[in-house]
Amino acid sequence: MIQDHDQDQGPGSDRLAHARSARGERPTTTLITTKAELRAARAALGGTVAAVFTMGALHGGHLALVRRAREIADHVILTDFVNPLQFGPGEDYAAYPRPLAEDLALVDGLVDLVFAPSVEEMYPVLPPTVSVSAGRAGRVLEGAARPGHFDGVVTVVAKLLHLTAPDVTVFGRKDAQQLAIIGRLTADLDLPVRIEPVEIQREPTGLARSSRNVYLTAAGREQALALSRTIAAAQAAAPSVAAIRAALERALARAEIDWAYALALDPATLEEIAEDHRGEVLVTLAGRVEGTRLLDAAVVEATAP
Ligand code: PAF
Questions:
Q1: Rounded mean pLDDT of 227-250?
Q2: Domain of 227?
Q3: Which of this chain's residues are annotated to bind (R)-pantoate (predicted)?
Q4: One domain for residues 10 and 70
Q5: Domain annotation covers residue 272
Q6: Dihedral pair phi/psi, residue 104, rounded to 5°
Q7: Cα 291 to ligand 1 centroid, rounded to whole Å
Q8: I need a surface site. Which of 83, 252, 270, 296 has the fewest CB within 10 A?
Q9: What's this model's pTM, rounded to 2 decimal places?
Q10: Pocket of ligand 1 (CB under 6 A)
């Protein structure tokens, strides 16, 4: 049952929660809407804390992040906030779903705190006078199609990291560019938090799980499998960068979907890599099916010329 933050849990409740978490028991989930309450509740958590940042409308992909967070920390804070800064003019900010009651029911007993602030609470001044820039990495790939999007993402993530002060934060690998940019945010600004990437959740067909899949017809879902088939082809083509690129070029040439890009890049910087590169390679794909932009990605190891 969701608890109001004001309700006194009594002395020693921290130790109790910690012991419960160690025994795999379910935490009491508390809904919090202000920064002051969040800071107080965070300070009262003993042990390690994992943060899961979301814009709500939770689905199985988010629950996989929550499960991983529960495995690697004593306590979990989930944030549920539709961030206006990361939507461009003409994008679906107003229409974006905000089913807070359903979200709370989904994570009840799985996380310790849900932070769901209003826009005014998060941004007393909007747009904020000072914000964070994602730099070049924010202007390529998805950022080229959505100018300013990643600046909005890193600004809210920087705020949420300060507010939740987690030991570790969990991000999905499907949004590979977001993961890379948040890696740069924490490294470049020396933010003391570890980032835990979580593998893409797939449907039995191989299609990467995404809230956007609901826009696809049965035929569109079939067509969208070109993405996961291309990932599989790139994985099979490893270990050489040239062979991975050849597999991606074959997929682009087949034009089964309206491709935006299919690239092999450096996973940390999103820069092009040389053909003789050894180490991790990010294979990142985007394409449009029935008017919906879909993403897929994988990190593969290049070990041979
Ligand atoms: O991935 C998302 O849902 C959002 O970009 C995030 C990280 C919660 C920031 O608003």
A1: 94
A2: 211-302
A3: 86, 178
A4: yes
A5: yes
A6: -65, -40
A7: 22
A8: 252
A9: 0.87
A10: 53-55, 83, 86, 153, 156-157, 175, 178
Does the annotation list 21 as a binding residue? no
Band (pLDDT 50/70/90 cuts) for residue 15 is very low
Q: Tell me, in angstroms, the distance from the centre of ligand 1 to residue 7's CA.
A: 30
**pLDDT value for 22:** 56
Q: Which two tokens stand for residue 272?
A: 């092009």
DSSP line for 207-233: PBP-GGGGG--HHHHHHHHHHHHHHHH
Q: Is there a binding annotation on residue 159?
A: no
Element (DSSP H or E) covering residue 185: helix 176-188
Same domain, 194 and 215: no
Distance CA 97, CA 285 (A): 26
Q: Which atom of ligand 1 is nearest to the CA of 83?
A: 10
With residue 159 as reference, give the H or E element that holds it.
helix 149-164
CA-closest residue to ligand 1 atom 2: 54
Residue 21 has pLDDT above 70, yes or no: no
Last residue of a domain, one of 198, 219, 240: 198
DSSP lists the bridge partners of residue 299 as 282
pLDDT, tens digit, 9 for 90 and up, residues 161-215: 999 999 999 999 989 999 999 999 999 999 999 999 999 999 999 999 887 888 8
Residue 23 predicted with pLDDT over 80: no
